[in-house]
Amino acid sequence: MEDFILRAILAAIGISIIAGSLGCFVIWKRMSYFSESISHSALLGVSLGLVSGLGLHFGLIVVGVIFAILIVVLQQRKFLSNDAILGIFSHISLSLGVVILALVGSANTDYFALLFGDILSITNQDIAWIYAVLVLVGTLLIVFWQRLLLLTLNEDLGVASGLNKLRYQLLFMLMIALTVSVSVQIVGVLLITSLLIIPPAIARVFSRSPVQMVLFSMITSVVAVAIGLSGSMHYDIATGPTIVIALGALFIASQLFPSKRLT
């Protein structure tokens, strides 16, 4: 097996597990628009990483964390609705990213790959970064599972139990920012949200418990990414859109089954 294919498979599996598990919380918390907004901010992170010379992942994490903190702070002020705040920051960061790339980008900058992914360009360093994030996010989910789940499914009860809502909200957003930072090369800036919301939406049809939904979501994500990656290499087409098409086909197929989903 060619090295670049092996790296692509390893990256696909790692990112599928991260996105599949965190995506369940995105669905439960009804934060699809937040994940869409923070994925748009990823283009600004990419451009700043390239300008600073510190690398793509560093820029993505810095911008993602700043973006998440600003959103949480403004949400606490309750001056604007959540969707208005997210829309403002999403479009500002996306536009800034485009402008900065236009100013500093070179002829070698692959804009199409940034927007829609290029999994075959992944390096060994990227693989190490993906699995480092997988270990970190997995550990955080295991350690804080009960508290995150309680705040997600019954926020009032969680707060009454003494949990700090703001602290866990920031923790969750940090994990989303890390997920976005490793997903850009798989599906690109414009399609990251699909990895976070479609696998859990499929898994929800067949799940009777939160743990089942997380497991089915990860399996669905791995299968869809494997199908998309195979189709991308076989037909020589963009990886990101191919993965999303595979997810879409699985979602449509899942709707033909009787639902066992959580209420």
What does this molecule look like?
The chain has helices at 3-28, 32-52, 56-77, 82-104, 111-116, 124-153, 155-160, 165-187, 192-206, 210-235, 239-254. It is built from 11 helices and no strands. The chain has one domain: ABC transporter involved in vitamin B12 uptake, BtuC (Orthogonal Bundle). Helix 1 runs antiparallel to helix 8 (165-187) and helix 3 (56-77) packs antiparallel against helix 4 (82-104). The N and C termini lie far apart (45 Å).
Question: What is this structure, in a nutshell?
Answer:
This protein has 263 residues and is mainly alpha-helical.
Which key terms come to mind for this protein?
ABC transporter involved in vitamin B12 uptake, BtuC; 263 residues; 11 helices; mainly alpha
The poorly predicted ranges are: none
Radius of gyration: 18 Å
- Main sheet attributes: strand count, strand direction, barrel closure: none
CATH fold-level assignment = ABC transporter involved in vitamin B12 uptake, BtuC
CATH architecture assignment name? Orthogonal Bundle
CATH superfamily: ABC transporter involved in vitamin B12 uptake, BtuC
Order of helices and strands: HHHHHHHHHHH
Percent helix among the residues?
over 70%
Shape estimate:
globular
DSSP strand content: under 5%
Estimated structural class: mainly alpha
Secondary-structure map with pairings?
Elements: H1 3-28, H2 32-52, H3 56-77, H4 82-104, H5 111-116, H6 124-153, H7 155-160, H8 165-187, H9 192-206, H10 210-235, H11 239-254
Helix pairs in contact: 1-6, 1-8, 1-9, 1-10, 2-3, 2-4, 2-8, 2-9, 3-4, 3-8, 6-8, 9-10, 9-11, 10-11
Pfam family, one: ABC-3
Organism: Bathymodiolus thermophilus thioautotrophic gill symbiont
GO biological process, one term: transmembrane transport
